[in-house]
Amino acid sequence: MNGWLRLAIFLSAFWVGSVLLLTAHEYRSVSRGGGPRADFVHLRDSKTGEDFGSLSLSEVKEFGELAQQKSRTPEGDPTDAANAKLLLAAEPVPFINYRIVLYWAFVPVLIFWALFIGIRWVAAGFRKTA
After folding, report:
1. Residues of 84-112 as b/e, b for ≥16 C-beta within 10 angstroms?
2. Contacts with 88 (C-beta within 8 Å, 6 or more apart), sequence order
3. What would the pLDDT profile of 25-70 be if each residue is shown by its tens digit?
4. Of 35, 40, 41, which Cα lies nearest the Cα of 55?
5. How many domains does the chain have?
6. CA distances from 121 to 10, 38, 124 (A)
7. What does the pLDDT read at residue 80?
8. HEC profile for the chain?
9. What per-residue confidence (pLDDT) applies to 77?
10. What mean pLDDT is reported for the chain?
11. Range of the domain at 106
12. 99 pLDDT tier (thresholds 50, 70, 90)
């Protein structure tokens, strides 16, 4: 195995490891009340399974209170009251968005390897004819 192949393997492993470490860091951050940064971890209601997307724990409650206030005004509608009830009764727990994590971990690696193999193949063709 030559040096370039070793470097490619190292870079691939480093990339996948970095994505997994970022996911673990984001999970810990969201668990402690922070907001997600890379969209690898979302909050989900433990009772209903409702996905709160990139909201933090405090934002879920804050939006619930805002929806409740709006539902009590003349401009409010029944969906505001339903949203307020859902958000205020929610028990958000973090969950890992595996589809996004796998995408960011492996698609760049596959593209990198396709380019790496393609460039080596083309370079080998020039070496043989010269």
Report:
1. bebbeebebebeebeebbeebbeeebeee
2. 61, 64, 65, 68
3. 999 998 888 877 778 998 888 888 888 888 888 888 888 888 888 8
4. 35
5. 1
6. 20, 35, 5
7. 80
8. CCHHHHHHHHHHHHHHHHHHHHHHHHHHHHHCCCCCCCCCEEEEECCCCCECCCCCHHHHHHHHHHHHHHHCCCCCCHHHHHHHHHHHHCCEEEEECHHHHHHHHHHHHHHHHHHHHHHHHHHHHHHHHC
9. 80
10. 88
11. 3-129
12. very high
Which two tokens mark 69?
């206030």
Token digits of residue 10: 């190292």
What pLDDT is recorded for position 18?
97
What six digits make up the tokens of 102?
């796998």
